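Here is the promised in-class demo. Please do not try to memorize the tokens; focus on the logic of going from shape to residues.
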């Protein structure tokens, strides 16, 4: 009965939100030279060709008229470049002024009703858009889970690091983007074939800060808001910080009554295991359901990688099993 009432409430909101949603004409990211922070001495060769995004579905702007405070720059192209690490080179996206989600929707016959918003990492400078974004989105959609890759505003945007210009955003802007993404997916749940009570958020590294804020500083929405999306709750139904830190900033907000269940993940050969283990204890003491996986190796930033034979590569299967255990996947 509660679910039926929720769906009846959300259906007109979804229609109104869709009618108000102007399809965003996102220009292709503009390739720019690498900045020093993205160069790893002794790393693999940097391609001679410009970096490009992998093929992906059309993005949906979080706010059709631009994010609050960013309206004047919403049509400015994103930027793309290469990042070099010890064993690979990959594209990264920055200069984000029009935050968006890119939907990966499962085929109807495979859909479980669950959805995950994915916030890639990148040190608040850039988004590691493939293995912590689009690659995982495709993987989840193939297994019946709708995925939405979030491009959020960056507090240390690489475009500004390269020029020395002042940073236009703070962590609060990224947090606002995470909350808006949950509202937007919930407002359009019927259209996208999603159960509005099965919407979670996952974030890698710096993207985990967006996740922690979204999972602890949500609200029920404003019934009198002119924007129908703002009338919808921003509370995620589960949250997944992946090799992230900064838990002490949200520990005071943790409670059995309000905090959704959590899936936590990292590798031992990273700087995060102790922080994540302590956060698991915090959640456990508060009575919040949580599961933590610490792999023997994998380092930082492993995301979804198929080019290494490591046990950490199987973590998405553990996540799917956890979703099933928690009842977030459709059962016959």
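The designed amino acids, position by position:
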């Amino acid at each position: 009965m509660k679910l039926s009432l929720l769906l009846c409430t959300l259906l007109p909101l979804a229609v109104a939100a869709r009618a108000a949603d102007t399809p965003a004409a996102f220009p292709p990211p503009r390739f720019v030279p690498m900045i020093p922070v993205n160069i790893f001495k002794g790393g693999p060769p940097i391609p001679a060709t410009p970096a490009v995004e992998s093929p992906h579905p059309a993005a949906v702007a979080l706010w059709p008229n631009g994010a609050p405070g960013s309206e004047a720059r919403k049509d400015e192209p994103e930027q793309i470049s290469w990042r070099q690490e010890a064993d690979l080179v990959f594209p990264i996206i920055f200069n984000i002024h029009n935050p968006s989600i890119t939907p990966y929707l499962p085929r109807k016959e495979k859909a479980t009703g669950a959805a995950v918003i994915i916030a890639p990492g990148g040190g608040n400078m850039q988004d590691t858009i493939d293995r912590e974004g689009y690659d995982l989105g495709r993987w989840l959609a193939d297994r019946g889970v709708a995925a939405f890759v979030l491009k959020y505003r960056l507090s240390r945007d690489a475009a500004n690091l390269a020029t020395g210009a002042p940073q236009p955003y703070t962590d609060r802007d990224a947090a606002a983007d995470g909350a808006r993404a949950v509202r937007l997916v919930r407002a359009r749940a019927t259209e996208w074939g999603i159960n509005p009570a099965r919407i979670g958020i996952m974030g890698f590294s710096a993207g985990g800060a967006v996740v922690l804020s979204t999972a602890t500083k949500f609200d029920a929405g404003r019934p009198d808001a002119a924007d129908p999306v703002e009338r919808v709750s921003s509370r995620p139904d589960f949250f997944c910080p992946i090799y992230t830190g900064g838990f002490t900033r949200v520990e005071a907000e943790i409670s059995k009554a309000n905090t959704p269940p959590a899936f936590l993940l990292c590798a031992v050969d990273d700087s995060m295991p102790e922080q994540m283990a302590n956060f698991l204890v915090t959640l456990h003491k508060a009575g919040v359901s949580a599961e933590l996986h610490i792999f023997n190796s994998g380092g930082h930033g492993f995301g979804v990688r198929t080019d290494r034979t490591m046990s950490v590569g199987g973590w998405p299967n553990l996540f799917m099993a956890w979703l099933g255990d928690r009842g977030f996947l459709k059962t016959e």
